[in-house]
C-alpha cells in the first residue's frame, strides 16, 4: 500500500488536471501572429548574424540602428531643465501640442483652423487616433456605418474599423500590372459607392504600396468625394516621409479642406519624429463653427475617458517642444528630409543592383518610383517565406519591405537574396 502522502499528492494532481480541462479559457483558439509585428517576433527569434528585418515600418540609420532624432534629444534636454511635472493631462491631452499638431497638418492658411472650427485631441499615436475617430463616428455619424479602404491598405485598418462596429469594404487602388495607381479603378469604385459612405484615404506615402496620387489626381478624388457626398477620413502617418517636405506631404489634406470637406484626420508622430514607443498622435475633425466644435470636443471626451482616461505626457511634451521652437522646428524638418533622402538613396542602390549587377528577372522600376518608407516589391508569399527561412530576410507576406531597414552594410546581401529567390535558387 502507498504511504498516505503519495495518495494525497496523486489526488491533488488529478484535481489540478481536472480543473485545467474545465478552464474558463479552454475554448480560446490560438490566433495567428500579427501580419506586421509578428514579423519582428520571428526576426528576433532568428540567431543568424546575417538576418535583416524589413517588416515593420521603423526608421533605421545607415548602421541599421534605431535613430533618435537630434531634435528629439535637444527637446529632452530642454525638458530635463524645465522639469515638467507628471500630473494627469486633460482627457484630450496637451492643449498646446494639439494646436501645433493641427497647424502642421492643416497649415497656417486653413480657414476652419483660423476660425476655431477644428476639434483636436491628442491620441495614442496614429492607431489610437484612428480608433478614437472610429469610435466617434460609430456613435455620431448620422449615416450607415460603412467604410471603404483602399485595396490594399495598412493591415491594421480593417480590424480597427471592424472592431469599432463598421462594415469594411474596399475600393481599387493598386494596379499589379503597372505596379502603380489604378486611378481609373479608384474613380469608378468611388463613383459607385453608396452616398454618405466613409472613405479612408492615405494622405501621403501610402502604406503598403508607396504609390500616391498626383496633386491633379487628388483634386479629382476630392471632386468625386464631394459629388458622391462621401465622408473623407485621412490617415496621415508619414507626413514628411513621402517628399522630405512636411508642407508638400500635407497637400491632399489641405486641398480637401480648402474645397469645403469636413474631414476627419489621424496623425502620427511615430515616423516623422521617430517617437514610435512614445505613442504621440492626434485626431481631429473639421466642424462648421466654434460652437459645433465645442460640442464635438465634449463628445470626444466622452469617447476617450472610458478607453484610457487621458494620454501619456512625455512624448507630447517632446513633440510640443519641437513644434513650438522656431530653431528646433527647422532642425527637425531638415532631419525628416535627411531620413527621406537616405531612403531614396537606398531605392536607387537597390534598383541598380537588381537591374544592372544581378540582372534579376522582372521589372524593378517601381523600387525607385514608389515613395515613403515602403516598397511593394512584387515578391509573392512563397518567395517571402523562402527569404525568411533560407536567407533570414524578413518582410511582410505581401512583399512589402521597409526601405528604412536597408543600409550600406546589408543592401548587397539583400539584393543577392532577392535575386536568388526570384531565380528559384534559394
Ligand atoms: C507599419 O506599417 O509597419 C507601421 O505602421 C507599424 C505598425 O504598427 O504596423
From TrEMBL:
<protein>
    <recommendedName>
        <fullName>Aspartate aminotransferase</fullName>
        <ecNumber>2.6.1.1</ecNumber>
    </recommendedName>
</protein>
<dbReference type="InterPro" id="IPR000796">
    <property type="entry name" value="Asp_trans"/>
</dbReference>
<comment type="similarity">
    <text>Belongs to the class-I pyridoxal-phosphate-dependent aminotransferase family.</text>
</comment>
<feature type="domain" description="Aminotransferase class I/classII large">
    <location>
        <begin position="50"/>
        <end position="417"/>
    </location>
</feature>
<dbReference type="InterPro" id="IPR015424">
    <property type="entry name" value="PyrdxlP-dep_Trfase"/>
</dbReference>
<dbReference type="GO" id="GO:0030170">
    <property type="term" value="F:pyridoxal phosphate binding"/>
</dbReference>
<dbReference type="InterPro" id="IPR015421">
    <property type="entry name" value="PyrdxlP-dep_Trfase_major"/>
</dbReference>
<dbReference type="GO" id="GO:0006533">
    <property type="term" value="P:L-aspartate catabolic process"/>
</dbReference>
<dbReference type="InterPro" id="IPR004838">
    <property type="entry name" value="NHTrfase_class1_PyrdxlP-BS"/>
</dbReference>
<keyword id="KW-0808">Transferase</keyword>
<dbReference type="InterPro" id="IPR015422">
    <property type="entry name" value="PyrdxlP-dep_Trfase_small"/>
</dbReference>
<comment type="subunit">
    <text>Homodimer.</text>
</comment>
<keyword id="KW-0496">Mitochondrion</keyword>
<dbReference type="GO" id="GO:0004069">
    <property type="term" value="F:L-aspartate:2-oxoglutarate aminotransferase activity"/>
</dbReference>
<dbReference type="Pfam" id="PF00155">
    <property type="entry name" value="Aminotran_1_2"/>
</dbReference>
<dbReference type="InterPro" id="IPR004839">
    <property type="entry name" value="Aminotransferase_I/II_large"/>
</dbReference>
<keyword id="KW-0663">Pyridoxal phosphate</keyword>
<dbReference type="GO" id="GO:0005759">
    <property type="term" value="C:mitochondrial matrix"/>
</dbReference>
<keyword id="KW-0032">Aminotransferase</keyword>
